[in-house]
Each structure stands twice: as C-alpha cells, then as structure tokens.
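Researcher: For the record, we're logging two predictions in this thread. I'll number them. Prediction 1 follows.
Model: Prediction 1, sequence and structure:
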Amino acid sequence: MASTSTMFLHLLFLLLLSQTAFSGEIVTSLPGFSGDLPFTLETGYTTVGDIEFFSYFVHSESNPAADPLLLYLNGGPGCSGLNGFFYQIGPLRFDLNNYTGGLPTLLSEPTAWSKTVNILFLDAPVGTGFTYATTTEAWNSTDTLTAVQIYDFLRNWLTDNPDFQTNPVYLGSDSYAGLIVPMLSMNIINGNTAGLEPFVNLKGFSIGCPHTDTIVETNAKIPFAHRLALISDYMYESAKTSCNGTYANVDATNTECVEALDDITQCIELISRQNVLEPNCAFLSPKEKEKAVRRSLRAMRRIKPLPNLGDLYCHNFQYLLSDIWTNYKSVQEALHVRLGMIPEFYRCNISITYTVDMNTVMPYHQNLTETGLQVLVFSGDHDMVMPHNGIELWIKSMDLTIDTDWRPWFTDGQVAGYTRRYTNTGYSLTYATVKASLEQHKFLELVTHLRSTNARNALTCFIDGFDIILSKILPIWLKILA
C-alpha cells in the first residue's frame, strides 16, 4: 500500500512539474567557492513536451540588457552544459593543482566570456546532465529531434525571460554539437519566417572542430595521418590505391583495402585522437563505451588525490572533478536541481538513448549561405577526430567567394594558426586553424594563455561582424573534446 501511495505521489509531482514552463532560480553561492558568486547565475528547468531541460544562465557582467545572448551546446552527444561552464568559456574553474580529495575548490575565471556576453549553457539532449523525461518514450532522442527540441526550448526560455527577447542571439558548439547547430539555425530561421513567437534574433553561430559529414571526415583521416607522418608513404599509397581513396563504408570483400586499413589502425590506435601531440589518456574519455570506464570513474572518486601529474599531464584528469563536485547533494541543492530525478550526474553521459539519424548537415550549411548569418568554423590542426583537411574540403564544396585569402593570425607576435574568410551576399564564413602546443606538460599554462589572450576580446570581434584584423585575434573556443 505504501509503495502504491509513493508511486502516486511521484506521478503527481511529475504532473505538477509539467504544468510549469520555466522554474529558474538565482544561485548566490556554490559549495567549494569562497563567498558569494561575483556574477549572476540562474539555473532551472524549461518544459518542452515531456522533457524537463536544465540550463545554467550566466548574466553578462557588462550590460546584460543589451549584450548578446549565446546559447552554448556541448558535444558527445550527452555532455553537460557544465562542461562549457567549467572547462571552456564559463566564469568558474576547478582548482586542480591543489586538489587532495573531498569537495573540489572553485576559483573565478577572469577571462570568462560572461564578462561581456550572456551565456545560456544547456544540458541537451534528454538524459544529459540534469535534463530528464517524464515519460518512458521521451527518453529516446535523435539528431533531428534534438535540434527541434532545442529550438522549442529556446523559444520557451525567451518567453519566460522577455527581457532578453531583443538581444542578438548567437549559437556556439563544439564537436558533435556541430551537427546540431546548422539544423537548429535553420529551424530558427524557418520559425521566424512562419511568424512563430517569440522571434529569435539570430545573428550567427560558431562551431569548433564540428562533426558535419561522416563520410568526408572518415575519408580525411588517412591523408591527415600521412601528412603528420603517423603512417609511412607506403602505407598511405597502399590504402589509397586499394581503397580507391575512399575509406568510409569499405566493401568487406575488398581484402587488400581492409588489410591496408588494419595496418594503419595498428599504427595509430594508441595515439590521442583529440590531439595527436598529447599523451593518450583514454580512461576518462567519453568516447570510450565500455562499462569499465564507469567502474574506473567510481573507483577514482574514492581516491583522495588525483594521479600525479608530473611531466605527463593528461588534461582529461580534470574532468573527474566535475563528476565529484556535481554529485554532492549540497551542490545539487545549491543549483536547485530536483533531487532524485537523475540517479547520478556524469559530465558526459554515454548511456543516453540516442539514435544517429543525420550523417551530414551539408545541405543545411548550403542553405544557410542564403541568409545573412555570420559563421565561424575553427579546427585544431592536430585533431584527428574531426581533421582540419576534412573541414576545409566541405567548406570548399560550398563554392563561396573568398573575401580574405589564407593567411596567418597571431598572438603575442607568434603565428597561432591560419585563417580564410568567405562571403555570399550578406552571409560570411570565417575559417581558422589553431596550432597545437608542443609543450603538452604545460597544458594548464597553455589553457590560461589561450583564454586570456584570445577568447574574450576576439569574441567581441566575432559578434561585431567578423572584422578580422591582426590586432583582434580570432575567437578561440578552447576545445577540450567531449
């Protein structure tokens, strides 16, 4: 009887929640941070059908009423908005160097983009972070459905936050979310054209190391490995000849091609795909699907200190701190999370029920060239997950006019990468490569350097119209690949 009553009350609770479109609350302090937060943080749920989307809204510290609104999506799929909040562009970071166990300490991030931009970090798709479904069916998601639901989320959020309806809106993403953003952009444009309210004042988007076209990206990896001397000339030519230059969807009966690709795989399988110059630390990578990963995470949580960093620094060690911190009850209470709706928080949830139904968004990119949007595409030049040569190939296929040809861009007088700008009747696309650091054991110093010298000042450049000049460094999304 008690069990039945408990179930009834739980269902009633969910029903009441579904009647509330948005339930945001101001967060004045967070466990692990000394004193009150020096910025305005609002967290809460936004209802979209049978899904309760959780978001973290950081008000601009400059002029929130007029500053741009950036909706920031992380990759995975399944990586929480807290990934961007703590590790990429947000106002707080973990004190990794002094962590010895227990509740991690939080520090202010002086180069946060929220100094001049309103940032809305989102847990999406459903099952990511603290976002949950109120029906069994709603836990299932796809690429196209996610793009639709995020558009509905944004409209609902703006409805409940009318003070931000006239702010210029930008979309930002990394990795897998690069597949979602073009679809989301088109959904917004179509909705605006159809007169849906509220009107979303979309101005542009930025995609870092974006997943765009599975075949193009797969075919780019072999030439990329050859260019970086990861495979020999003989191995490359053998694969190129036997596979006819096509390495996606290989015919299993083509034994020469299969064997050539197997040889290449053996050469590169122990290399960090996210950055081939970094140590390979796959045990905390969200790309690893095996259950042993989760067991190792839980075991690591019981260990007081993190592994000795020494000279071999693996930047994904720091990801463990977000899982430790967020699973404290006091933290979830401070964030106004509905306790018990998500059994355990993961920075990147590899167990979401998700179906890939979009292998390319090139038609979306092509259609968006007929709009007045401003687009930034950037790529690490040592990233083998989304190789830069593949990105350059699909950009070339769009047949845009080159406005500013290939040239270096600089920071502190040093070449930091290369850039090219394309246009098409009001539409612009800026492409930039970002050099990897050879001093991988100084990764934390590199992070601080990149964030402080590039990101915030250059984001202003991005939003003000992509007016790229050498004194205004390109916006760098410090991408730590999900």
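Researcher: Logged. Prediction 2.
Model: Prediction 2, sequence and structure:
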Amino acid sequence: MALTHDDIETIRLYERYDRGELTEREARNALGNEIIDGLAEEAAAFRAATKRDTAELLVDGEALQNSGETERPDQDHSESG
C-alpha cells in the first residue's frame, strides 16, 4: 500500500514533534489526539522490539532456544529421484 500525501505529512509532523521542534499541544492540534497517541504507541513498541533478546526465535510457532537449530523443522532435505 502506497503512502498518500496526507500520510507523509502526518509522519513529517510527528517526526518534528518527536525531535522537539513542535510542542505536544501543537502536534495534537495539527494531528489530533488519536494519531499522536497511536504513533507514540507504535514508536514505543518499535523501540522495545529493537531491544529484545533475539536468542529466542519462533519458527512455525516453536521456540528455538539456543539449540543451534537454524533450519525450519518442516523442511525436508531428502533427495528425490
């Protein structure tokens, strides 16, 4: 899905707010409470995700916990023919 001009402008305004170039009041007046709160939640979730321990990954709903397993459990490596 391509971003619209309005989407891009919303992102730019939020980034200005995030950098401190706009006050919270200015940002809320320009974008509305729902957008500011939603973008703030998304930004916090993104920051938290970047700090997660990647030693525990999910593959097809199963955790790979430092087992050294790097292949998907459903992969079949038998040769046909």
